[in-house]
Amino acid sequence: xxxxxxxxxxxxxxxxxxxxxxxxxxxxxxxxxxxxxxxxxxxxxxxxxxxxxxxxxxxxxxxxxxxxxxxxxxxxxxxxxxxxxxxxxxxxxxxxxxxxxxxxxxxxxxxxxxxxxxxxxxxxxxxxxxxxxxxxxxxxxxxxxxxxxxxxxxxxxxxxxxxxxxxxxxxxxxxxxxxxxxxxxxxxxxxxxxxxxxxxxxxxxxxxxxxxxxxxxxxxxxxxxxxxxxxxxxxxxxxxxxxxxxxxxxxxxxxxxxxxxxxxxxxxxxxxxxxxxxxxxxxxxxxxxxxxxxxxxxxxxxxxxxxxxxxxxxxxxxxxxxxxxxxxxxxxxxxxxxxxxxxxxxxxxxxxxxxxxxxxxxxxxxxxxxxxxxxxxxxxxxxxxxxxxxxxxxxxxxxxxxxxxxxxxxxxxxxxxxxxxxxxxxxxxxxxxxx
Length: 435
Fold this sequence. Notes:
Elements: H1 8-23, H2 27-30, H3 34-45, H4 51-68, H5 76-86, H6 92-105, H7 113-125, H8 129-144, H9 152-167, H10 175-189, H11 194-205, H12 221-237, H13 239-245, H14 247-258, H15 264-285, H16 292-302, H17 308-323, H18 327-331, H19 338-347, H20 351-364, H21 375-381, H22 396-403, H23 409-418, H24 430-433
Helix pairs in contact: 1-4, 3-4, 4-6, 5-6, 6-8, 7-8, 7-9, 8-10, 9-10, 10-12, 11-14, 12-14, 12-15, 13-15, 14-15, 15-16, 15-17, 17-20, 17-23, 19-20
């Protein structure tokens, strides 16, 4: 940041410009400049600058960590101390960027247990909801990037603290804090021993609709919502782990959440979590995938949900599932959900729902903007085809309309419908967020 830049807006622009420059530079070309750039940035964060300036500098430092790699190791202690301090900043953007940067820093930090202990202690004593959210997202990032450096007692302590703040107390916390807790607990769970993780998943999914009372109890909608959100986060960030050791318990919990008539958010989370597991299973097993025959009917039922939010989430989940799976894996099961999807795409009263359902039909039936782009769709919709029950709604006129939709909207639409586990649009760490 230039010394002459006395104006805060200029400083902010300079930091953002530096971030863009670093992103466009190779690691080799950046190496000689790591120390001259990083030191001044850390010093500026220690001064009393506006939140926008600090946020921009944190963004630049996060990119420096990604690009600079081992050359940044001499700065790890300073950076860690600075990022942790920024987690309590009054500005939300500063807190969130600090949390994201702290997670990335763990790729250079072999000992994370002391940091996790400090974060857990700070989480338990924080009185501000925004600070707790930042602490939770920092914990998620630390565990996501931790490599091999977390001991079991550390993971268990983090689990207990997160559960107390974001799950058991779900009735009195906001959505941002609850979602951050779900993400953090999902990443912490990956570090627990198999039997301990199994107990946690059982606790999250057990008796979802029973009559247990009390804050966070299963008779409390917010408590059920928090549990479903955590199971969905686990499915979206660690689907291979779930399939390997905890498929039945996780799927049972998500299916129960899908049937929770009182909690829209539980059903939304269930749709996204079930689709994530189904996609991972389809990628692993192809046409012999054991879970698609069980999960697709559940998703098909959610397409008829009374909530537009649930229908949007389910259509988006269907789109992501089919884009990420082979035609053979899904093809045998089209009858379980394509008729419902066709009803939504053609006749739903919500324009937003129809928008996402259109994209889902395109991906499910492999409709492309090419001369033979309707061949597969017409073959499965004809009499005797696996999706023939949807032919009344998916006429050739409808199929040609879907064929003409712009391809460039597909990825953006699927991301929007699935929803991000990030704190905001700038939160883009795929290691933490999954999907």
